[in-house]
# Entry
Amino acid sequence: MKMKKISFLLFAGLLLGNISCKEAEFTEAYPNPAKIAETTVEKQFTGVLYANKDYVLPAYRHYFVTLRTSLNHYNQATGWINSSGQYVPGSSGVEDVWYNYYNMLTQYRELQKVYASRPADQQADRKIFMLAAAVYVYDYTQKMVDVLGAIPFSTAGMLSSNGGDYLTSSAKFDTAEGIYTFLLDDLKRISTELNGITLNAGYQKSFQTQDFVNKGDLTAWKRYCNSLRLRLLNRVSDVESFKARANSEMAEILGNATTYPIVETNAQNIQVNVYDINTDLNSKGFQDGLESAGWFGNTAGKAMIDNMNANNDPRLPLLFEPGANASGKYIGIDPTATEGAQTTLFNAGQVAIYNRYTLSRNQFFPGILINAPQINLIKAEYYLRTGNDASAKTAYETAITQSVQFYNGLLALTNATGITGSPMPTAATPASISTYIASPAVSWSSATTSADKLKLIATQKWLHYNLVQPYENWADIRRLDFPVLSFQVDNANNQTVPPVRWTIPGNEVTYNAANYAAVKATDNLKTRIFWDVK
# Structure
C-alpha cells in the first residue's frame, strides 16, 4: 500500500543536483531536482525553492483544479455557473496544496539535516542558505494555516532525520496560534541574524547561483523577512492575545527602515521572475489554468466589475477584456442569478474575461510572493488602527498608485500571442491614477469614520489581489468582513454559503488518525481561523 501520510513524505527528488553554473547561466540552472544520490547545503536550498515553484509561478493545476472552484469563487474574483455543492472545496484541489507543502517541508527538513551534519566552520559559511530557506518556508506555512488552521508542522517531514523510523516520525498537529507564535519569534530572530551576517566572496557567488527568488541579494531577503513579519502581525492584530505584540513590533519595524528594511517600491517586490520561458521557471501553464475551464475559468465577477466601472478604475482595461459582443462594455457574472440567466449572458458574448495579454497568455508573468502595494495597504491599516490618519492616507494612496503601476509592469512583460478581436491595452497614465484616487468612492477624505476608512483599505486589497494573490485575498476578506459579497444560497447542500476554511485531506485523516483526533472537533468548514474574530 502506498503510504500518503505527510509525516512520511520523502520526495523522490529530495536532492537537487547538477547545479554548477556561471552567473550568466542563472536561468538555465534549475533542472528537475531528482538527479543524484547526494546533496549539499547549497543544492538542497534550491531544492526547497524548486519544490514550491508551481505554487508561486501561476501553473495549470493550481489554478484549474484548486483555485478555479474554491478561492476565486469565495473572493468573487471570477464568475461561475451556480450549482449544488459549489461551496464545498474539491478534495483534489486541497490535497494538491497539502502535498505540495509537505513535499517542500520535507526538502527543508533534509536541508536542516544536511546543514547540521557539517562542521562549525562550514555551517558559518552557509548560514545564509538556512536563513533564506526558513523565510521562504514560513511564507507558505502561513498560507497553510490561514486556510486550514491547525496543521502538522513542528514534527512533520522528519522521516529522514529520524532514520526511517515511521512511528517516531508520526507528526502531531500544532495549533494555528502556536504556529503563528513560532513564525513570529523565528522571523524576528532571522531578521537580527540577517543584519549581522557577512558573506565571503565565494559563498556570495554560490548564493547568487542557487537563489532564484532574490538572486543572492541579501537586502532583498531582509525586506522579504520583515515584510512577511508585517503580514503575520497585521493578520493577528485583532486577536486579543496578539494585539500588543502586533502593534509594538509593527511600530518597531516601520519606525526603523535601516534595521528593518521592507518592500517599499515595485522595484523591490519579492517574486520569482521569468527570464527564459524554455526553462522550468515559466508561466506557460497560466493559460490553460484559466482558459481551459471554459467561460467560468477566467470570466469577471459582477461585484468587481461594477466597482471598477463605477469609479473609472485605471486597472480595468489592464485586468479585463470586454465580452466579444458587449460593444466595449465591461459586464460581470452575477453570482446570485440563476444558472440560466448566467449562461444566457455568457452565450450572448456579453461577459468580460480576464485580460489575456496581462495575465493568462503572459508567459513571463512572475511568481508573486510579496509586493509594495500589499505592504502599503498593510501599513495603511496599521496607521489607521493606531490613530495616525495622515500616514494612513499616504500609505493608502501610495498603494493604489503602486497597484496600477504593478499591473502596468505585468503588461509590459507580455509575450501573449493568438489573441484576436481584442487589442492589447495601453498602460494607465499618472493622470488617470490621480483622477481615480480623487473619485468620491475612493477618496480617503470621503470616509468620515475609521470604520469607513477601513472599508476603503479592504476594497483596495480585494481589487489589487483579485485572482493574482488569492490566498491573501481570501484571508483579508474573512478577517475584515469586507467587501460584503452576495452569494446564491445552496439550500440543497449542508454548506449553503462559502466556507471560512478548508478541511484536512482524507488521506491525512486516515493515516494520521491518532494525531488528527486532537483537531477533529474543529476540522469543519464553519469553524473560523483564530484571527477571524470580527
About this structure: The longest strand covers residues 367-370. The CA atoms of residues 8 and 189 lie 29 Å apart. The beta strands are 151-152, 173-174, 270-272, 320-321, 353-354, 367-370.
